[in-house]
Amino acid sequence: MSHISEILEYNRQFVESKQYEQYLTGKFPDKKLVIITCMDTRLVELLPKAMNLKNGDVKIIKIAGAIVSHPFGSVMRSILVALYELNADEVIVVGHLDCGMAALNADHMIQEIRNRGISEEVLSTLENSGIKLNKWLHGFENIHDGVKGTVELIQKHPLLPADVPVHGMIIDPNTGALELVKDGYKERTGK
Q: Keywords for this entry (predicted)?
């Protein structure tokens, strides 16, 4: 049975037995938070439990390394939608120890892209269009610096309200222990 078949069969039973009822909530986050965190599989259940979050409490955006890499990309747009349209009023960036983005090697990934059938012509076209794959696919050296850099990018965004605190944290993916690396209450931009 394929993954899709398994998912659809489970979902049919889930809906028929009304297991969804325990998750019913509104679209506005009860704790008025938007969290940007890593897509790491260890954080799927651990992060909400470690932060005492339940369904409906927060908006969670999951991206590789919890790194916002472009001030006008889809992640920043999602943050602004959460703030302006969905009643969030704080942002927390949560990176984690032992993050795969710290070990990401752009040259290796580009080789894997080739190995999976992407042609040199496509890679060359991207490079000639100004997309520098080595830079775009680069990870970070230090998780603390990665979180701080993302917090600063968000804080300095021209569309971020001055009264919105942007915090930075690091979670241990084994224990759930949190370390505060940027206190947004102390560092509001004062735009």
A: Metal-binding, Zinc
d(Cα 145, Cα 149) in Å, to the nearest integer? 6
CA nearest 56: which of 21, 23, 83?
A: 23
Joined together, the tokens standing for residue 69 give 């890499």
Q: Model's pTM, two decimal places?
A: 0.90
The domain made up of 22-98+143-191 is a member of CATH 3.40.50.12500: no
167 is in an annotated binding site: no
Q: What number is the average pLDDT over the span 160-168?
A: 96
Distance CA 15, CA 21 (A): 9
Asked whether residue 99 is marked as a ligand-binding residue, the answer is yes
pLDDT digits (tens, 9 = 90+) for 72-131: 999 999 999 999 999 999 999 999 999 989 878 899 999 999 999 999 999 999 999 999
- Cα distance between residue 184 and residue 170, in whole Å: 14
Instruction: Give which of 83, 88, 91, 107 is closest to 151, Cα–Cα.
Output: 91
128: tokens are: 């000639």
Q: Given a cut of 90, is residue 158 above it in pLDDT?
A: yes
What residues does each domain of the chain span?
22-98+143-191, 105-138
96 belongs to an annotated ligand binding site: yes
CA distance 143 to 123: 29
